[in-house]
Input
Amino acid sequence: MSLSRRGFLAGAVCAALPGLPRPGRAGVPPVLLARPGSARLGPPDAPATPVWGYGGAVPGPTIRLRQGARIARLLRNDLPQPSSVHWHGVRIDNAMDGVPGLTQPPVPPGGSFLYDFAAPDAGTFWYHPHHRSWEQMARGLYGALIVEEEAPPAVDRDDMLLIDDWRLAADGHLREDFGALHDAAHAGRIGNWTTVNGESGWTRRVRRRERLRLRLANVANARIFALHLKGLVGWLVALDGQPLARPRKAGRLRLAPAQRADLILDVDAPDSGEAFLVSEERGRGYAIATFAVDGSMRAERLPPPGPLPANPLPALGPLADARSVRLAMEGGAMGALRRATLDGRALGIRDLAARGRVWALNGQADMPETPLLAAARGETVRIVMVNDTVWPHGMHLHGHHFRQVGPDGALGPFRDTLLVDPRETAEIALVADNPGDWLLHCHMLEHSDAGMKTWIRVG
Output
């Protein structure tokens, strides 16, 4: 690139665009207003917490549209720092991907940016900032994006559950230790309070044998949620917005930051009883969502659902002929990182830590000037991810979906975010069919900020 990424990020901010139509005129898209607000995250008697949100609320407005339709939203930034919007999991036009320094300049306070794109895949997605995301998302800036199938499955209720954790002080305010180096070098920013859709006691009244579609999304900075069901039985039908070839029996589910799961469930708890979505921590479980049963909807359970309609993702080419690149994850507390390259200089770990960089990918701390790989459009490529650290990493690729390649060559379901456990090696394969420059990073947001990000180019 003729302009360095660091220079682009630092110097090319986006003012209110001069050719942009003004909200209120005919045909102008709705405004997505990022601004401070407040939310009652804690118990009913707790004080409201100052947050940042789209519309000042947590979560922001749920956006629903039909598969193939266009979505247009005018981001207006009323925050005290620049921001952007990334439409997570959508195979989007590169210019609309919302990554400052890679696809657009950051939108400054008082500025605007028009996002306008088609949604090619049905499924469960979400949106969030990609500038200082480790702070802005921890303050509550995110929302759900649901793209409905042309023929949705027959369910009685369709609910989106955005699962988050918060680091709250005794007065109900957020602890302001965003971007702490200790967090970055360990698991990331882990909160002490959990919510669903911004509520600490999320509940729904349901009826026995009612059929639910639950769309789960982990929107926390760094926490991995280990989930299971009580009083609900059914099937896992999609991961990261992409349908499974065959529904699986719903059991225990591990969701890394940014991952999603679609469940089709029947209420199996008795009348006047309760069903739960349970999160497990250190061998103990607690309900993060409660379903209070009030009567029966039907005498018998409905038959099992079939698979959701497949999205038009390209099929992988022959893997034996595909180019393969290695991505080594290094650093963090108790890691072996001694030196890495930052801003073109090889630095020791002390100098790296002084600059807030304690992670590296292939010996590079922070975004490199050259891509991890440059692929021809339509080329099948493989990436071998080697986690040489003692911490898990949720690796997210923008603009594409991939499949994990097992040791025996078996292919996993389509994903956009893969959890790679400590000392684990995981291989993915994808068709690089979406042209542009695309971010690949750890979605433990403090890890990404502290060095775990790279990019690929599709020509």
Remarks:
- The longest strand covers residues 284-296.
- Residues 5-11 form the longest helix (7 residues).
- The two ends are 13 Å apart (CA to CA).
